[in-house]
Amino acid sequence: MLTKRIIPCLDIKNGRTVKGVNFVDLRDAGDPVELAEIYAANGADELVFLDISATEERRKTLADLVLRVAEKVNIPFTVGGGISSVEDVDILLKCGADKVSINSSAVRNPDLINELVAKFGSQCIVVAIDAKEIDGEWIVHLVGGKVPTELNLFSWAKEVEERGAGEILFTSMDNDGTKDGFANQALAKLSELVNIPVIASGGAGNTAHFVDTFKEGKADAALAASIFHFKEIEIKDLKEELKSNGIPIRL
After folding, report:
1. pLDDT recorded at residue 65
2. pLDDT in tens, 130-155
3. Using alpha carbons only, what angle is made at residue 90 by residues 86 and 94, rounded to the nearest 5 degrees?
4. How far is CA 50 from CA 2, 104, 159, 169, 240, in A?
5. In the chain, pLDDT over 70 holds for what percent of residues?
6. Domains located in the chain, CATH noted
7. CB atoms within 10 A of CB 1
8. Residues above pLDDT 90, as percent of the chain
9. What is the 3 state secondary structure string of the chain?
10. Residues carrying an active site annotation
11. Mean pLDDT, residues 106-124 taken together
12. How far apart are the two ends of the chain, measured CA to CA in Å?
């Protein structure tokens, strides 16, 4: 069985790490480079670095910040935000990112997934999906959760896989920042539907939530932000708890 992964997420706005609830009410959480160094030293398996306003403001992810992070950490990290072309990805990978995450641009131009996979390989391409449950159906949203689409989470995830993406990062907008646990029912359905890794995002509040998302949600990795940024849970302690619950994890 593959080991499960713990992934701190650094949401970046104006060069600072921020965190909100349900995608709004952002507060400062520190310097992203300093946080990245700490997480790498404390046992994080990977990092995700998202310029959360890049798409909305129609500018590119801050490549210089990616360079600074890459110089300081020795674990894989994924970069997302405002990526809409082969050229964008080429720059970020050359700056030191291991993977890129695309979201709004993939929905608007699904062929972009195929293009990126053909150029860089599926192992580099993560498709992030932000979705919210509306009248019993999980609806995909764009632009940092601000714009609803007509896409269903599960049908879109299947298409993403068929187009060659290497991973799916699923964020439940309903759970984001609430610390009430991950959307495990949707995660389990998603994990059974696709054959590529699914990263759970949105709702982590304690160690039990991680145990539940690996056992009940069948997630391959779990991502969290505020509980790590504000030192509510230490990654080493979390991993010990996961191991004691029989979950394969790298200590």
Report:
1. 83
2. 999 999 999 999 987 789 999 999 99
3. 175
4. 26, 13, 23, 12, 27
5. 91
6. 5-244 (3.20.20.70)
7. 5
8. 74
9. CCCEEEEEEEEEECCEEEEEECCEEEEEEECHHHHHHHHHHCCCCCEEEEECCCCCCCCCCCHHHHHHHHHHCCCCEEEECCCCCHHHHHHHHHHCCCEEEECHHHHHCCHHHHHHHHHHCHHHEEEEEEEEEECCEEEEEECCCCEEEEEEHHHHHHHHHHCCCCEEEEEECCCCCCCCCCCHHHHHHHHHHCCCCEEEECCCCCHHHHHHHHHCCCCCEEEECHHHHCCCCCHHHHHHHHHHCCCCECC
10. 11, 130
11. 98
12. 16
Tokens 């009248």 appear where?
135
The answer on pLDDT for 1 being more than 70 is no
Measure the CA–CA gap between 163 and 46, rounded to whole angstroms.
Answer: 24
For 196, the token pair is 């590529």
